[in-house]
Amino acid sequence: MTSAEIPAAYGGPGWRPRPTSLREEMGSIWGTWGVSSEWAPLRAVLLHCPGKEVEGLEDADAALMLGTISPGQMREEHHALQAFYREAGVEMYLVEPEAEAPPNLMFCRDLFFMTPEGAVLARPAGVARAGEERLVQARLAALGVPILLSVHGRGTFEGADALWVDEGTVLLATGLRTNPAGAGQVEGLLREMGVEVAQVDLPYGAMHLLGVLNLAGPDLAFAWPGRVPHRAVEVLRSRGYRVLFLPDEEEARDGMALNFVTLEPYRVLMPAGCPRTRAFYQAAGLTCHELEIGHLRRAAGGMGCLTGILRRG
C-alpha cells in the first residue's frame, strides 16, 4: 500500500489536523462564553429561582438557612433580580433542573467558576448541597459551555472561593467550602492555561472569599477588615488595586453589603438596606443600584452568590 492509498482515518493524504485551540473555538463549536475579570461588562448569567425545594424545610439550619424562610417572598425577590438583569441587557439563563433540586441550588455562583476556555465545575463541601453540581453541569452542557474540570476525589471547591484579579491572576481561597485537594486541582488547570494562582486561607467563620472581598473595577477592591486574608490584600495592591475596607460591620454581616455584582467598572448591584456602605461606595466613585433581598438573604447568601457569571466583556 502506498502512502497515497492510506485512508485519511489512518493519517493518509486526506487527514486534516485540527488547527485551532479550544479558546479559538469559543463561539463556533462552543458557545460564546468566558470570563477573565470580575469587573468587565456583565453579559450573561445563570440563575435558579427557588422552587419546591425550599418548601416545608423541617430543619432550616441543616439546610444551611439562617432561620425560617418565606419561599413566596424569596421568589418575589428573585423575580425582581431577573427583571433587573433583563432590563440591563444582560442575557439571563435559568438552570431549570429536571430532577428535584437541593434547597441551595439558587446560589449559582458557588457551582462553577468560569474561565476564558470554559467552566470549572464545583464540588460543594456540605451534604446539604451534594448533587447541585450535576444539575448545573447539565445546563452548562446544554448551553455549549466546555467543562474543563470537574473537581473530583476528596476535593471540594465552590466557585465563590475564586476571583479574577486580572486576566493572568486568580485569587483562590481554602477554608470551609474549598479544601486543599480541590484548590490544588483548580490551580493545576489554571496554571496549564498560563494563569498565576495565589492561594489564600480564609479565617474560621468565613464562608467564601466573595463574602469578604469583591472587585468593582480594574483598580478598586472592597474588603471586610478582620476577615479578608492578608495575602489577598497584598496581591491586589501589587497589581495596582486600591483596597478599601467597609466601614460598617453590621451591614457587612447582616446586610451582606459586600456581596454585590459588578455590572461594569465602577457600577454595581448591591443589597438594599445598607445606607452607610452605599454612601461609602459612592464616595469611592461607584454608581450603586439596589434591590431588596431580605428574604433571599436568610438562605445565607447575597446577590453575588445568586449570580453565576457566564460571560463578561
Largest sheet, order of strands side by side? 2-1-15
Distance between the termini: 53 Å
Structural class: alpha/beta
Classify the fold: give the CATH topology.
Answer: L-arginine/glycine Amidinotransferase, Chain A
In total, the number of domains comes to 1
Strand content: 15-25%
CATH architecture: 5-stranded Propeller
Order of helices and strands: HEHEEEHEEEHEEEHEHEEHEHE
The whole-angstrom Rg is: 20 Å
What is the general shape? globular
Mean pLDDT: 97
Largest β-sheet summary: 3 strands, mixed
- Number of distinct beta strands: 15
CATH superfamily: L-arginine/glycine Amidinotransferase, Chain A
Output the keywords:
single chain, 313 residues, alpha/beta, L-arginine/glycine Amidinotransferase, Chain A, three-stranded mixed β-sheet
